């Protein structure tokens, strides 16, 4: 459903929120209409927002945002980012529609590398999880376009290689 950007709480009990004006949708193509996931780096407090127009990062508490994934060349990748996770060491993993997974050891703009799961050509969603004790261990749950489970995959080397650990089904 259509959203209205991102809201932020600074109260310890999270009992009040303010709208980040930098994420107010300005048009029907604004990335802030659909925010699928938020993640905050434990290393540098960067905020990452997986939106329907790419992965955005803020280094100033949400006042300004930059699309940080460049693909296939030096232009911002504006496909739908579905999920973003950050490892305990600050590495960033993001999944996109069209079976794309990117990894960056630093999370800096322009440092993301494509790390796809081989063996399938279409999916409707990829959800990621990073092991808290070892950020090289990444898990991916992949759904087919018809909504059934494609499979559960594991990488032990920061998404360079993948193995199927749970086959799909209906």
Tell me the layout of helices and strands.
Blueprint: E1 7-8, E2 18-19, E3 35-40, E4 47-51, E5 54-58, E6 66-67, E7 81-86, E8 92-96, E9 100-104, E10 113-114, E11 125-130, E12 138-143, E13 149-155, E14 163-167
Antiparallel strand pairs: 1-2, 3-4, 4-5, 5-6, 7-8, 8-9, 9-10, 11-12, 12-13, 13-14
| Distance N to C terminus | 26 Å
Kindly report the spatial arrangement of strands forming the biggest sheet: 3-4-5-6
| Sheet of most strands | 4 strands, antiparallel
Strand tally is 14
Radius of gyration: 16 Å
Helix-residue proportion:
under 10%
Low-confidence stretches: none
Structural class: mainly beta
Number of helices: 0
- Overall mean confidence score, pLDDT: 92
The global form is globular
State the oligomer: single chain
- Strand share of the residues? 35-45%
- Strand and helix order: EEEEEEEEEEEEEE
Give structural notes.
The chain is mainly β and 170 residues long. It contains no helices and 14 strands. It has strands at residues 7-8, 18-19, 35-40, 47-51, 54-58, 66-67, 81-86, 92-96, 100-104, 113-114, 125-130, 138-143, 149-155, 163-167. It has a four-stranded antiparallel sheet with strand order 3-4-5-6, with no helix packed on it. The relative contact order is 0.12. The model has no long low-confidence stretch (mean pLDDT 92).
């Amino acid at each position: 459903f259509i959203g209205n950007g991102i809201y932020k709480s600074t109260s310890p009990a999270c009992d009040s929120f303010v709208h980040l004006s930098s994420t107010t949708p300005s048009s029907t193509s604004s990335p802030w209409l659909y925010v699928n996931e938020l993640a905050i780096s434990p290393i540098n407090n960067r905020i990452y927002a997986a939106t329907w127009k790419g992965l955005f990062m803020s280094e100033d508490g949400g006042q300004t945002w930059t699309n940080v994934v460049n693909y296939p060349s030096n232009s911002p990748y504006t496909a739908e980012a579905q999920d973003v996770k950050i490892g305990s060491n600050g590495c960033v993993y993001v999944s996109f529609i069209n079976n794309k997974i990117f990894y960056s050891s630093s999370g800096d703009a322009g440092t993301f590398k494509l790390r796809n799961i081989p063996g399938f050509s279409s999916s409707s969603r990829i959800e990621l999880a990073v092991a808290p004790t070892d950020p090289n261990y990444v898990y991916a749950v992949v759904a087919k376009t018809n909504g059934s489970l494609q499979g559960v995959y594991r990488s032990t080397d920061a998404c360079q290689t993948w193995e199927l650990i749970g086959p799909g089904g209906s």
